Amino acid sequence: MLAVSPFNSEVDVALRSSVALWAACPAAISSQRLVYYDYLIVHSSDVSGPKSLHPGTPYRSGELVTRRSLVQTAIALLSSLQMIEISPTDSGFLLAIAAPGLGFVDSLESTYAGRLRERALWVSAEFGSLTDGDLGQMLEANAPRWGAEFEQVDLDDDSP
Questions:
Q1: What is the pLDDT along the chain (160 residues), one digit of tens a residue?
Q2: Residue 30: what are its φ and ψ, rounded to 5°?
Q3: Cβ 71 vs Cβ 84: under 8 Å
Q4: Exposure b/e, 22-57, CB count within 10 A at least 16 = b
Q5: Which of 60, 61, 131, 158 stands the most exposed, by the fewest C-beta atoms within 10 Å?
Q6: Burial of 74 (0-12, 13-18, 19+ CB in 10 A)
Q7: Taking the model in full, what pTM does it have?
């Protein structure tokens, strides 16, 4: 039987997305910002925040690229459950937590949910004043070093 990881599944990303939107409330945010927030919530220690929610993985900065499709799937799921509101604007769509989503997030009682909420509130407070462009530039500038601590070292190399 194939083992399915609970991390980064559709449900896990939808949970994190709903909590990220809860933390941003009452603001509405772009789907791109939600992608950034999802990465930052999971890997908060990469940006000198609280201990990361999930263990670090090698070359995790590549997650910024693959995370977009996961977040899009989460948006579709949350929208189908009427947990989020999607509003069209001249520059694209904005996402906000809806009343059922607020109730859902408020009802979560596990230790993991508490840690998730803490990190989401931290990310929203720490990065909420940045534009999407500035946030993207900050992530892009720092991404190459994230996960680098797992790079393999050639022990046969005599160079200093």
A1: 445 556 678 899 999 999 999 999 999 999 999 999 998 999 898 888 999 887 666 556 566 666 788 999 999 999 999 999 999 999 899 999 999 999 999 999 999 999 999 999 999 999 999 999 999 998 888 776 665 443 333 333 333 3
A2: -75, 160
A3: no
A4: bbbbeebbebebbbbbbbbbbbbebbebeebbeeee
A5: 158
A6: buried
A7: 0.83
